[in-house]
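Human: Note token order:
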Amino acid sequence: MSRRALVTGGSGGIGAAICRRLAADGLEVTVHANRHPERAEALAEAIRSAGGQASAIAFDLADADACTAAIEQLLASGPIQVLVNNAGLHDDAVFPGMSASQWDRVVDINLNGFYRVTQPLLLPMIRTRWGRIVSITSVAAVMGNRGQVNYAAAKGALHAATRALSLEVAARGITVNAVAPGIIETAMSEGQFDPQAIAQMVPMKRSGRPEEVADLVGFLASEQAAYISGQVISINGGMA
């Protein structure tokens, strides 16, 4: 029987690549979306057409009741043993001009969303004595970034949560890690950086590809990564 995986924000650029990689590795993947459930359905169909196992689910990470109902629906079919917390958003502004709503929404989706999904999945995962939790964060949480105090704060908190949670479940066969991408070619990052800016910021002189992030996540979700936990792994082309 295949292990089951949930990828939040699975219909986006990085999320879709992760879903495809996990499905190729033999996992039964649930693709999560919120605003664009049709994209999650299309991706799940594409994975099935390629011979993999996939389904789609839609709920809002900002809605605690919706999260609870969705997780209960998923757990009715058995435990989720691989969780990729990939959903997130940014709403940038320099801090003196940042509104309370900008702060609250970014922290709510990126940090509270982690709690709303991870916490109810954990006990069923512990009972299987095998699990992989990977949270996708950001280079902004490692290095900081102007105009992203809210985003950096939320993603940085995920780094701390990753280290603390890894200690709680280490003896249960569950690893907990974070992956911090740099500049990756996705619709979310399109237009933010021109090639000259990328060449100045990134020693490798290029953006990363979603598939490169997915390959790292796939490894962390595998048997081979059983002794790696509590780590924040940067994937950013050599940015310090």
Observations:
- The CA atoms of residues 208 and 239 lie 12 Å apart.
- The longest helix spans residues 100-128.
